[in-house]
């Protein structure tokens, strides 16, 4: 018997604009999607995947390697097989349909990382509705790597907030974030120093803003590790955030612990 359903918010973005005017091909990270999802299933929870347009997320090519699984070929292959063929990864809903049908039946929500979520989910109205519901109900809300920046979707005008960040208008962004539901929450996210490495080695270009800056502008109490790509998970009330790809299992464990505690 299932312990309950966890909603997974996926991204449909495949292109990310860079400050140079060029674009980078992006997607969700394989390990950040599969490791927590498989851990939830193994722990007795069901998962429901929903995206803005109802199609399956694209996996970032840079994440399609056993390096993100500690070099474990079997774990890497299990994740690939899971994403390719498991019904939960292929029976994809739209965010709007999930909202319209009601959110009360979900016990938690999870947002994987990769750069893709900062393109669409960060400013998606339905994602904002979902986050506000889980916040009001004090239900576990877990976000990983770049995923934590999606919490700004809960703002009244997330697209305008994102535009202010792109334009370097910090004061305007802060003004738009007044009364943000997560103001003062402790959280973590893919760090500015980690982003510099990603920009140089993966994206081959500079982003308009880093994730630390975005969350601090909104009013988040953001902390990151001194060492790049060291696992780091921060829990504050219902919010569970993991800093980077290496935080996948630790974030999953924190989410499952919170879900089990709520069920008990």
Please, could you describe this protein's structure?
By secondary structure, this protein is an alpha/beta fold. The protein has helices spanning 30-42, 73-85, 87-90, 95-101, 125-136, 158-166, 170-176, 192-203, 211-218, 248-263, and strands spanning 5-9, 15-17, 23-25, 46-51, 93-94, 106-111, 140-144, 186-187, 221-222, 233-236, 239-242. It is built from ten helices and eleven strands. A hairpin with a 5-residue loop joins strand 2 (15-17) and strand 3. The chain has a single domain, classed as Class I glutamine amidotransferase (GATase) domain (Rossmann fold, 3-Layer(aba) Sandwich). 38% of the residues lie in helices and 16% in strands. It has a seven-stranded mixed beta sheet, with helices on both faces. Strands 2-3 form a two-stranded antiparallel ribbon. It has a two-stranded parallel sheet with strand order 8-9.
Helix content: 25-40%
- Overall outline: globular
Q: What's the CATH C level?
A: Alpha Beta
Q: How would a textbook summarize the main sheet?
A: 7 strands, mixed
**Overall number of strands:** 11
Proportion of residues in β-strands: 15-25%
User: Number of domains in the coordinates?
Assistant: 1
How many helix segments?
Answer: 10
Strand order of the largest sheet: 5-4-1-6-7-11-10
Mean pLDDT: 97
CATH T-level topology: Rossmann fold
Oligomeric state of the chains present here: single chain
What order do the SSEs take from the amino end to the carboxyl end, as H and E? Answer: EEEHEHHEHEHEHHEHHEEEH
State the CATH architecture. 3-Layer(aba) Sandwich
Structural class: alpha/beta
